[in-house]
Amino acid sequence: MGESRTDEELLFAHRDGDRFALGELLERYRGPVMTYLVRTLRDRPLAEEVFIDTFVALHRSAHKYQPQGAFRAYVFRIARNRAISALRRVHERIMRKSISLTPEPDESRPRFQLIQGGAGPERLTAARQQLDKLESAIAALPENRRSALLLVHVEGLSYPEAAEVLEVPLGTVKTWIHQARKTLRGELGERFVERG
Amino acid sequence: MDTLDEALAELPRHDAPEWAIQEILARVEADRASEQVEPPVAPTATLRMRAGWIGLAAGLALGLGILWATTQRGPESSAVVSHGGMTLKGAALAPVDPSISLGLSLLRDDVPVALVPGASALGTDTVLLRYTTDSSGFAYLFRLGPDDELEVFHGTPTLPGTHHVTVDDRIVGYDLAGLAGEHIFGVAFSQAPWAPGRGATAEAPAGLAQGIAARGAFPRTIGEVRVDAVPVRLGARP
């Protein structure tokens, strides 16, 4: 049994007509990219559409891919750009039946809501409640800080990889993550104070 | 390491659904099928632009061909590619049983929200619809009211894929103002166009309203039409 192919090798193989290479890439990235998109968009159906767009775009740009940075940064950059475009479309182009444009939201960050069904808060364990609070606090972060935090602390990208995804200098990523963590601690209280 | 890092690591993971994976693979196959009609010449910037138009034309021709083949010869089996436990219908001539699925959400105070089972919509909400199909044909959006009156409010030729309901390339929704009771919103997929309606988008086939109103799960086939639908109950704002 040979060694498994790298992500780059799979994309090149796909570009060259290998019918199974994209399937392997999808198996590797379906979880990480979907997790990132659901938390970025706060709307699972929309996240599913953007997930599809992301990998169709990856396929269509395969012929011009140059392995300069980290491949996963390349994938997440496509996903983030598609997510931002989707949010823009939803916010700016939603119309009523009368074909009149709805007013544009006066804040730039997404205002999607997740509808909670089933068990009420009293049935949730304390740990579950804490995670829900954390989810809500992450959702309330500005998009750039949220993305930086999710990429590094949830998806495990390095700071330089996150800088590639977000297309900003490394120092900016560090600042955004520092600010995001500070905000989360402020929102969530003592439990999340540094242990030292 | 602090407890914030631990909590971040404990956040639940999400996974892309299987249909999304298959949708990607189907679109890639469709792209490749359209690329095969390009002239075998080294690509230049101009040619790449032309290739886009050729691809679009090939896609349309393929869609029309599928439609023609379906109406002329009836269903044929699809070309099937198996991969890693997944089944991909690639370059299908015509599906045996075209699939159609409806996605429905509400626009409430300019914020899209999911309609969870058992929840009610408000008269101030707008229904947002999108549909996914694996076939070329015609999609009709409808509302069936409590009086079993069927309103077909949008109709369009469609290709395989996921589509938002748009007019002039802008997403449109259905305003619920003035409605009460339970309404069924849905999409009907037909391989042939319906007749133009008098003062409406199109004339639904006879018996469709009764077929939609009948008890049972969606999607379902009613005559020659495949239908997916979601009931929306109007409630008062708390």
Task: Please provide a written account of the structure.
The complex is a heterodimer of chains A (196) and B (238). Chain A is mainly alpha-helical and 196 residues long. Chain A folds into two domains: 105 residues, RNA polymerase sigma factor, region 2, helix turn helix motif (Rna Polymerase Sigma Factor, Chain: A), CATH 1.10.1740.10; 70 residues, Arc Repressor Mutant, subunit A, CATH 1.10.10.10. Helix content of chain A is 63%, strand content 0%. Chain A has eight helices and no strands. In chain A, helix 3 crosses helix 4. The longest helix of chain A is centred in the middle third of the chain and has 23 residues. About 16% of the residues of chain A have low confidence. With 238 residues, chain B is α+β, with helices and mostly antiparallel strands. Chain B has two domains: 72 residues, no CATH class; 136 residues, Immunoglobulin-like. In chain B, 26% of the residues lie in helices and 34% in strands. In chain B, strands 5, 7, 8, 13, 14 and 15 form a six-stranded mixed sheet that branches. In chain B, strand 7 and strand 8 form a beta hairpin. In chain B, helix 2 crosses helix 3. The radius of gyration of chain B is 21 Å and the shape is globular. The N and C termini of chain B lie far apart (44 Å). About 25% of the residues of chain B have low confidence. The chains are: A mainly alpha (196), B alpha+beta (238). At the A-B interface, helix 2, helix 3, helix 4, helix 5 and helix 6 of A face helix 1, helix 2, strand 3, strand 4 and strand 6 of B.
